[in-house]
């Protein structure tokens, strides 16, 4: 048995396939196919497939979600805004997980966590509807103790901590500060009885400290894997990310080829 295939689950990797669709849509073709990417990712060790159906359909489209859902051997984590259109669509598709995220049309990518305190009623209603269909609900939030407490109060069972500020840190001091903030957020989530995941901006050279945090169950990573796949191939890119994560959690040295 190697550290790449340990006994029991160590840490889950959710492979986000949004940017496979971005490349496809850039030329209006039918390739590369997000479904094919999802199946290759599973074969390479992904524990789940993450995809974000944005309101403007800039990458993943409704047809992608409908095609991918029945083909997965693992599970689907559908990211969606807190709108009635998206919640109704999720209830139709019935992914295993829905992660509720903030969304602004003008942003390049999700720039921060969902403000659960401000949108408490809307989030609570969305969670109630999704849970009624047997869907587990996660909230994509900042590592802020008040937001974490609010997530537990509205009925979420999972939170995904936004690691963007950590990923964008430009100095060693800032990096250390943001890593500690995430660790505090993880502890707060556990204290509130929540499953804690994390993601955003993680890549092959900054993921290790996050993956090493014992109470993080899952990391969702997309752009870095798709970018590395241009040089290493998609299957290899997924395998390498999973290996780095597992090694970090087990405290095993792993020489990453990286980006």
TrEMBL record:
1-deoxy-D-xylulose 5-phosphate binds at residues 18-19, 54, 59, 109. The keyword Lyase does not apply. GO terms for molecular function: pyridoxine 5'-phosphate synthase activity. Keywords: Cytoplasm, Pyridoxine biosynthesis, Transferase. It is found in: Cytoplasm. The record marks 160 as: Transition state stabilizer. The keyword Transmembrane does not apply. Pathway: Cofactor biosynthesis; pyridoxine 5'-phosphate biosynthesis; pyridoxine 5'-phosphate from D-erythrose 4-phosphate: step 5/5. It catalyses: 3-amino-2-oxopropyl phosphate + 1-deoxy-D-xylulose 5-phosphate = pyridoxine 5'-phosphate + phosphate + 2 H2O + H(+). The active site is at residues 52, 79, 200. Its EC number is 2.6.99.2. InterPro entries: Aldolase_TIM, PyrdxlP_synth_PdxJ, Pyridoxine-5'_phos_synth. 3-amino-2-oxopropyl phosphate binds at residues 16, 27, 201, 222-223. Belongs to the PNP synthase family. HAMAP family: PdxJ (MF_00279). Catalyzes the complicated ring closure reaction between the two acyclic compounds 1-deoxy-D-xylulose-5-phosphate (DXP) and 3-amino-2-oxopropyl phosphate (1-amino-acetone-3-phosphate or AAP) to form pyridoxine 5'-phosphate (PNP) and inorganic phosphate. Homooctamer; tetramer of dimers. This is Pyridoxine 5'-phosphate synthase. The gene is pdxJ.
